[in-house]
């Protein structure tokens, strides 16, 4: 709340200073006492008010809805429209025809023009050139602030993803179950299965600790992580659980943000497995030259979850990361009915 109040104070202060610019920066005839109420000053005030409104429209609406979603033509049209509004509307509202050949600013007898200001033949472009400069500054400043904010949020999301992944994907419940299974295997089988299980578990932990700190990883490493995770889960599954897992396509030479698919897969095992009911989990990952598709389906069964497994942070965090890392380059549908839950995710890799 304190931070929000500080931001509000800064916004209000900035708006007041911006609206006061016509009183201090824009030229007015020397010796004129009522320049505050003159037509040019009124025009400048109106122009600054419109520019201030357009700054927030661009920051909160145009950049996220058009620019970030690569709708560059619509965004350019919106910027040009804003430019026309700011350059023409203030003049019309103050009774000046911007399409006239020149602006008559004849001075009273005995009053001399300011240096560099023509007493007649003052073109409309010269009249509003400070509006043009301010408009360009406003657009660039709003884009800069928005990009800075987005980079900051992306960094926070990446850091949160690392922490949540450690808690959600390699949580104590999963580790204890896996270690118990490894112990059981070591009793029944003497070496090979035990060594393989330990190798897969160490690979999972190594990947989460060392690889996920990077913004992007190779797709083959991400698929290998999922393979090991599913194999370890398969060890503890009852025979009544029908598990189908398939990866198709070429996984080499592609890059992807880490741990985007595993929350949906883990969710299927978390909510779709009950040894007392017929359970089924279907996972299909398809990779093409341009995109990755993953479909995860599971039956809904009655499951008693530990409190730390009920948060749902993994799915929500993944949706936020997708929006930040793949804006307009991903397609996610979460659907369910009384008996099934389904995830369909498409990511454009290029």
From TrEMBL:
Annotated Gene Ontology cellular component terms: membrane
User: Per the record's keyword annotation, is Glycosyltransferase included, yes or no?
Assistant: no
Show where the Signal transduction histidine kinase internal region domain sits. 161-240
Keywords recorded for this protein, A-Z: Kinase, Membrane, Transferase, Transmembrane, Transmembrane helix
The answer to keyword Cell inner membrane applying to this record is no
Q: Which InterPro entries does the protein's record reference?
A: Bact_2-comp_sensor_kinase (IPR050640), HATPase_C_sf (IPR036890), Sig_transdc_His_kin_internal (IPR010559)
Query: In the record, what terms sit under GO molecular function?
Result: phosphorelay sensor kinase activity
Pfam families, A to Z: His_kinase
Q: Where do transmembrane segments lie in this chain? A: 7-25, 45-63, 72-93, 128-147
Top-level division of the source organism's lineage: Bacteria
Which PANTHER family does the UniProt record give? SENSOR HISTIDINE KINASE YPDA (PTHR34220:SF7)
> What protein name is recorded for this chain?
Histidine kinase
- Species per Swiss-Prot/TrEMBL record: Ohtaekwangia koreensis
């Amino acid at each position: 709340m304190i931070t929000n109040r500080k931001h509000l104070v800064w916004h209000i202060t900035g708006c007041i200073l911006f609206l006061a610019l016509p009183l201090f920066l824009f030229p007015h005839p020397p010796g004129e006492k009522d320049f505050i109420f003159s037509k040019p000053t009124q025009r400048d005030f109106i122009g600054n008010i419109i520019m201030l409104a357009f700054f927030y429209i661009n920051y909160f609406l145009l950049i996220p809805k058009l620019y970030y979603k690569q709708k560059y033509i619509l965004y350019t049209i919106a910027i040009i429209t804003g430019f026309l509004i700011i350059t023409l509307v203030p003049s019309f509202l103050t009774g000046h025809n911007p399409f006239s050949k020149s602006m008559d600013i004849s001075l009273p007898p005995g009053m001399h023009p300011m240096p560099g200001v023509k007493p007649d033949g003052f073109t409309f472009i010269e009249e509003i050139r400070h509006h043009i400069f301010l408009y360009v500054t406003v657009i660039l400043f709003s884009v800069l602030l928005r990009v800075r904010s987005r980079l900051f949020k992306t960094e926070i999301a990446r850091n949160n993803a690392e922490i949540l992944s450690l808690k959600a994907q390699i949580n104590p419940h999963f580790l204890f179950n896996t270690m118990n299974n490894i112990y059981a295997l070591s009793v029944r089988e003497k070496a090979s299965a035990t060594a393989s299980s330990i190798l897969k578990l160490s690979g999972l932990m190594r990947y989460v600790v060392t690889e996920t700190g990077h913004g992007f990883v190779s797709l083959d490493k991400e698929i290998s992580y999922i393979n090991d995770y599913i194999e370890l889960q398969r060890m503890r599954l009852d025979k009544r659980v029908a598990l189908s897992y398939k990866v198709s396509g070429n996984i080499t030479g592609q890059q992807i943000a880490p741990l985007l698919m595993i929350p949906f897969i883990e969710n299927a095992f978390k909510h779709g497995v009950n040894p007392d009911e017929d359970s089924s989990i279907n996972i299909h990952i398809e990779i093409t030259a341009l995109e990755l598709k993953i479909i995860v389906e599971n039956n809904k069964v009655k499951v008693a979850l530990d409190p730390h497994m009920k948060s749902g942070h993994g799915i929500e965090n993944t949706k936020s990361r997708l929006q930040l890392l793949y804006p307009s380059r991903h397609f996610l549908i979460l659907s369910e009915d009384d008996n099934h839950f389904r995830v369909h995710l498409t990511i454009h890799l290029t």
